[in-house]
Specification:
Strand content: 15-25%
Helix content: 10-25%
Number of domains: 1
CATH superfamily: Class I glutamine amidotransferase (GATase) domain
Distance between the termini: 12 Å
CATH architecture: 3-Layer(aba) Sandwich
Largest sheet: 9 strands, mixed
CATH topology: Rossmann fold
Number of helices: 5
Strand order of the largest sheet: 2-1-3-4-11-10-9-6-7
Oligomer: single chain
Radius of gyration: 16 Å
């Protein structure tokens, strides 16, 4: 399965996302923000970083890049799309996901290994998990506080569209401890933590088994791969 990774000016984790896709068994395809060609990919990852220096609002300028016209159209047709950190911000700015991301509650950049609870296994990016499962994924953001109006939050909760929730500590003041959400169809998912940094032993979070051995993020990428192959 070929999964595109879009590079924007200021992207930092595009190559990490590509490596995660390869480790999960897929073929990463480099896509450029200024193009209108998705090169026939079967999934898309919008990676983390500081696209366009986070000017205006984080993800706001990137959401209006030429390639995002194609990403929005593909997502609306059902193509799996994952937005990680800055990519999550792009998805909200492009109105593929509701709500928005604001400056962390304490006003500082947060970098830590974060425990999450998988709230939904019915999306194309979470099907390899069990609902209620606890995982650990690295987190690094300055504008990661998820916000939405009361009606939108109630709809996300009621429709089972909260994909991940912070456990133990809410690092950025996100409403209802929400760390990631999905669209109604379940093919578009955005989350603030970075699963691409928890895919390879020796480079992931610490676990009870060994230091730096956490690979919980790998199953996010495998979920999409397995879902497309099974279709």
């Amino acid at each position: 399965m070929r999964i595109g990774v879009v590079t924007f000016p200021g992207s930092l984790d595009d190559r990490d996302a590509g490596r995660a896709i390869r480790l999960a068994g897929g073929e990463p395809v480099a896509l450029w923000h200024g193009d209108h060609d998705l090169q026939g990919v079967e999934g898309i990852v919008l990676p983390g970083g500081f696209s366009y220096g986070d000017y205006l609002r984080a993800g706001a300028i990137a959401a209006r890049s030429p390639i995002m016209t194609e990403v929005v159209d593909a997502a609306n047709r059902g193509l799996p799309v994952l937005g990680i950190c800055n990519g999550f911000q792009m998805l909200t700015e492009a109105h593929l996901l509701p709500g928005g991301l604001i400056r962390n509650e304490k006003g500082s950049f947060v970098c830590r290994d974060q425990t999450l609870r998988v709230e939904s296994s019915s999306t194309q990016w979470t099907s390899a998990f069990t609902e209620g499962e606890e995982i650990v994924i690295p987190l690094k953001n300055g504008e990661g506080g998820f916000i939405a109006d009361t009606e939108t939050v109630a709809r996300l909760e009621g429709e089972g569209r909260v994909a991940f929730r912070y456990l133990g500590y809410n690092p950025n003041g996100s409403v209802r401890d929400i760390a990631g959400i999905a669209n109604e169809r379940g093919n578009v998912v955005g989350l603030m933590p970075h699963p691409e940094h928890a895919v390879e032993p020796g480079f992931g979070p610490d676990t009870r088994a060994a230091m730096r051995s956490g690979v919980d993020g790998l199953r996010i990428f495998r979920s999409a791969l397995e879902g497309v192959l099974a279709a």
